[in-house]
Write a structure and sequence with these properties.
The chain is of the alpha+beta class and 104 residues long. It has helices spanning 2-16, 61-76, and strands at 18-21, 27-33, 37-42, 54-57, 80-90, 93-103. The chain has one domain (19-103): OB fold (Dihydrolipoamide Acetyltransferase, E2P), CATH 2.40.50. It has 2 helices and 6 strands.
C-alpha cells in the first residue's frame, strides 16, 4: 500500500510541473543569451510563462534540435501545433522550459 501511494504521489507531483500548448502558435521573436540559453516569443502570446517567453536549454543536443526547429518555424512561418514544457520557479517568476515541439 505504501508503495502504491508513493507511485500515485510521484505521478501527481510530476504532472503539476508539466504542461503543454496544443493551440496553434507562430514564432514572433527568437533570441539567445549567455549560459547556453535561448528562447522565443509567439505572436499569440504565452501568458503562463514569465515575460511570455518559452526558454530552450542549448547545452544539450535536444535543446539545439528544438532551437533548430524554432528557427525553421520562424523563417518559414510554420505553425507550431504542440509544445510540451515544464515550469521552474525563478526569482523573477515562473519560467517555461520547452521539451517537445511539433511544427508544420
Amino acid at each position: 500500500m505504501k508503495y502504491l501511494l508513493t507511485i500515485i504521489f510521484a505521478l501527481v507531483s510530476s504532472d503539476a510541473f508539466a504542461a503543454k500548448f496544443e493551440e496553434t502558435r507562430h514564432v514572433k521573436r527568437v533570441f539567445t543569451e549567455s549560459n547556453n540559453i535561448a528562447g522565443f516569443y509567439t505572436v499569440e502570446g504565452l501568458p503562463q510563462c514569465v515575460y511570455g517567453i518559452m526558454y530552450i536549454d542549448l547545452s544539450t543536443d535536444t535543446g539545439r534540435a528544438l532551437f533548430s526547429i524554432v528557427l525553421t518555424a520562424k523563417s518559414l512561418n510554420w505553425e507550431i501545433r504542440r509544445m510540451d514544457y515544464y515550469l521552474t520557479n525563478e526569482t523573477y517568476g515562473t519560467r517555461c522550459n520547452i521539451t517537445t515541439i511539433h511544427a508544420e
